[in-house]
Design a protein that fits this description.
By secondary structure, the chain is of the alpha+beta class. It is 29% helix and 28% strand. The protein is built from 10 helices and 23 strands. The C terminus is likely disordered. The structure holds guanosine-5'-diphosphate. Guanosine-5'-diphosphate binds next to helix 1. It is found in: Cytoplasm.
Length: 410
C-alpha cells in the first residue's frame, strides 16, 4: 500500500501535559474533529458531541490507544500517547522519541505548574518542537496572558501569542486570529465548524498592536523577512507562517493558542497549527542507531528504500485482536508476511497482520513505510524498546542512558 498522503503531509505528534490540564479531553476532541463520525454526524443529522462521546465510551475504543491515526485537511496526523506522569523513565524517553512534535496543554487558571516544567524540560531534552494550547479558558480565573507570561518566565521559552480571547470565563466564546485578523466564534458547544467574522470593535486596536508585535517577533528570526519588515514592505500570512514554522522546528518559538476543550472551543485552530508549524518526518534529522557488531553509529534516513529500522514503542493487549506491538518506522518499510530481525533479542520474527488504528476503526494494511506508525500482531519475542531491522544490516535504535539519580541528603 502506498501512503495515504505524501510524507510531507504526515505529522507524528503527542499531546503532552501535566495531569489534569486536559490532555485526555483535548485528545478526544482532536479525534472527534478528525474522525469520520464528525463528518457524517455533522452533515447528516447534527450528531452532538455528547452522543458521540457516549458511543465511544460504550464501544470502549481507542482514545486510550498507544497511537491513533487521524486525517485533517489532507494531512495524516498520528497522535501518539504520552504517559501522564512525565519523569525520567525509559517509557517517557521512548514516547518522546517517536514523536516529531508536541502540543503542550496548559490549564489557563493554573498556568505553568511544577509538572509542566518537567514536561517542558523533557521535550527540550529530546528535541521535540512544540506548540502550546492554553485550555480551560471557560474556568473562573482563567487567563491567557498570565499563562503565556508564566510560559515565558518559568520555562524560559519564547511563546508567541497567536490569538486574543473573546469573552472570558463562562463568557469565553471565541478568539481573534492575529495572523489572518479575523474573529473565530465557537458558539454552540456542539463541536461544529466555527463561525468567522470581523474583529469586534472593542478589540480592534489591541489586535492591531498585538499583530504588530507578533509580526516583529516572527520576522526577527528570519533573515529574509527581517529585511522586508525593516523596509516596511507587506509580509503575507503565508510568509509569516513559513517563517514561524522554521522557528518552531528550530526550537526558537512556540505559538500559543487558547480554548476550552471541554466546551469544544478552540481545538480546530490547534489542528491547523499542527499542520502549519509542527515538522513532518522529512523535516527532522535522521534517527541514529548503533551497529551491534562494532558499536559504530548508523544513520537511518527517512527513506522507504533504505534498510529497515523500526522502534517498538508500546505493547498493548487489545481485547479484540490480541497482542499488538506499536512501532515507528524510521527507515525502510515493514511488510506483512516478511521476516524481520529483532536486533536487541537477536531473533528473527515474521510480521503478521499489520494495522493502522483510527479512533473508530482498525484498517488492515500490507506495509508501513518510513516515517509512519503502525501496529503488528503476532510478534512473540519483541518488546518495547526493541528495534526491528534486517538481519543483514542490523541496527539498534534505542540506547537509553538514564541521568544520574538525584540524591538529596536531609
Ligand atoms: P488529563 O489528566 O490531562 O488527561 O486531563 P482530563 O482531560 O482528564 O481533564 C481533567 C479535568 O479537567 C476533567 O475533569 C475535565 O472535565 C476537566 N477539563 C478538561 N478540559 C476542560 C476545559 O476546557 N474546561 C473546564 N472547565 N474543565 C476542563
Amino acid at each position: 500500500m502506498a501512503r495515504n498522503f505524501p510524507l510531507e503531509r504526515y505529522r507524528n505528534i503527542g499531546i503532552i501535559a501535566h495531569i489534569d490540564a486536559g490532555k485526555t479531553t483535548t485528545t478526544e476532541r482532536i479525534l472527534f474533529y478528525t474522525g469520520k463520525t464528525y463528518r457524517i454526524g455533522s452533515v447528516d443529522d447534527g450528531t452532538t458531541v455528547t452522543d458521540w462521546m457516549a458511543q465511544e465510551r460504550e464501544r470502549g475504543i481507542t482514545i486510550v490507544s498507544a497511537a491513533v491515526s487521524a486525517e485533517w485537511k489532507g494531512y495524516q496526523i498520528n497522535v501518539i500517547d504520552t504517559p501522564g506522569h512525565i519523569d525520567f523513565t525509559a517509557e517517557v524517553q521512548r514516547s518522546l522519541r517517536v514523536l516529531d512534535g508536541g502540543v503542550v496543554v496548559f490549564d489557563a487558571v493554573q498556568g505553568v505548574e511544577p509538572q509542566s516544567e518537567t514536561v517542558w524540560r523533557q521535550a527540550d531534552r529530546y528535541g521535540v518542537p512544540r506548540i502550546c494550547f492554553v485550555n480551560k479558558m471557560d474556568r473562573v480565573g482563567a487567563s491567557y496572558d498570565r499563562t503565556i507570561e508564566s510560559i515565558r518566565h518559568r520555562l524560559g521559552a519564547n511563546p508567541l501569542p497567536m490569538q486574543i480571547p473573546i469573552g472570558s470565563e463562562a463568557g469565553f466564546r471565541g478568539a481573534v486570529d492575529l495572523l489572518t485578523m479575523q474573529a473565530i466564534y465557537w458558539e454552540d458547544e456542539q463541536g461544529r465548524e466555527p463561525r468567522f467574522a470581523e474583529i469586534p470593535d472593542e478589540l480592534r486596536e489591541e489586535a492591531e498592536t498585538r499583530r504588530g508585535e507578533l509580526v516583529e517577533k516572527i520576522a526577527e528570526n528570519d533573515d529574509d523577512l527581517i529585511v522586508k519588515y525593516l523596509e516596511g514592505e507587506t509580509i503575507t500570512v503565508d510568509e509569516l507562517k513559513a517563517a514561524l514554522r522554521k522557528a518552531v522546528i528550530a526550537y526558537k518559538a512556540s505559538p500559543v493558542f487558547c480554548g476550552s476543550s471541554l466546551r469544544n472551543k478552540g481545538v480546530q485552530p490547534v489542528l491547523d497549527a499542527v499542520i502549519d508549524y509542527l515538522p513532518s518526518p522529512v523535516d527532522i534529522p535522521p534517527a541514529r542507531g548503533i551497529r551491534p557488531s562494532d558499536d559504530s553509529e548508523v544513520e537511518c534516513p527517512t527513506d522507504d528504500d533504505a534498510p529497515l529500522a523500526a522502534l517498538v514503542f508500546k505493547i498493548v493487549t487489545d481485547p479484540y485482536v490480541g497482542r499488538l506491538a506499536y512501532f515507528r518506522v524510521y527507515s525502510g518499510k515493514v511488510v506483512q508476511g516478511e521476516m524481520v530481525y529483532n536486533s536487541v533479542k537477536g531473533r528473527r520474527e515474521r510480521i503478521g497482520r499489520l494495522l493502522r488504528m483510527y479512533a473508530d476503526r482498525r484498517e488492515d494494511v500490507t506495509e508501513v513505510l518510513a516515517g509512519d506508525i503502525g501496529a503488528v500482531l503476532g510478534l512473540k519475542e519483541s518488546f518495547t524498546g526493541d528495534t526491528l531491522c534486517l538481519e543483514k544490516s542490523p541496527v539498534v535504535l534505542e540506547n537509553i542512558t538514564f541521568p544520574e539519580p538525584v540524591i538529596s541528603v536531609a
